[in-house]
Amino acid sequence: MDTNSANVILTPIDMWGMHLANRLAVAPMTRISATAEGYPSQRMARYYEGFARGGFGLLISEGIYPDKAFSQGYLNQPGLGDDEQANAWRPVTAGVHAHGGRIFAQLMHAGALSQGNPHRDHAIGPSAIQPKGHQLAFYRGQGRYPVPEAMTRDHIDEAIEGFVQAAVRATTHAGFDGVEIHGANGYLLDQFLTESSNQRTDEWGGTVAKRVALLAETIRRVRRAVDPRFPVGVRISQGKVNDFHAKWPGGEDDAAIIFRALADAGADFFHVTEFEAWGPAFDGVNSSLVALANRYASSVPVIANGGLHDLERAAQLLESGVAMVAIGRGALANPDMPSLIATGRGLRLFDNSILGPIADIKDSELATSRSHTPEK
Fold it and tell me: For the whole model, what pTM was predicted?
């Protein structure tokens, strides 16, 4: 890549009252490597520490389930459902901080897409509608998703409170630097946003303004519960793990309503993810979803995700006004990506075997993060 692009990517940035070493973030990636009880493992601590050692300014954790009720989506997924789980994150966050990195906890309620939850024997969702597609085999799923139970008002209150309490634990017990509320990729809060999965006739269903209300209320409640200096952001997408090509039916009009509602709720950042972050959001529209977020909520910083291991594309988005770019598979192949860019070395190609047959953390990844990355 050219020198200007490298400089753009590696420029430090101050946001949310903290200094970040560069504008590269590690995207959240589910790796099902926790204990059966939801405690982060030593393997996970080494995995996250490797990205911080490699120079990434910000790490966003894999999806963490916030309560011990209906939120867990996968077996061996980590949790923040009680103080013991939260305390178990301390070695992870301490390892990141030891190398000058920052780490946010992504809080995720799987809702109807739950395919491995020892705390409950069935899933819940906005409506009793069978999700599209099949469970994810590389997360130990089999067959179609079952029909969820439609959530009651008590279920909804319990889910919101789960996010709130997990966010509090993230700052008071676990040592995280911020939280990201998972409102994307087909999980619970996105299920409420999506018309095909939300057929409710109460205040949580109907128009797009009503369907986004649960996500907005969750942000609002979490924002009130934690210190004003503790960042509370939201991940948002159109595509889903069970419906890659989903689009908001109202196009740009929907985008305007959604981004304004989330900004009004107090979101400190939008983490916008698309298959290709720079691509048009809708047919007949030139603007990307990232650009629409900036257009309709210009005061909220945007982290862009999707295909940005193409670093020239990443630099272009940063120059267009995006605050940071989040890297997924490119980071798995290159946990030392910032160090490689700084020294002008080429990036390694992603090896699909990392995510198969089960998408847990592999020994080869830990070896790469140790052997190719200089200590700071």
Answer: 0.97
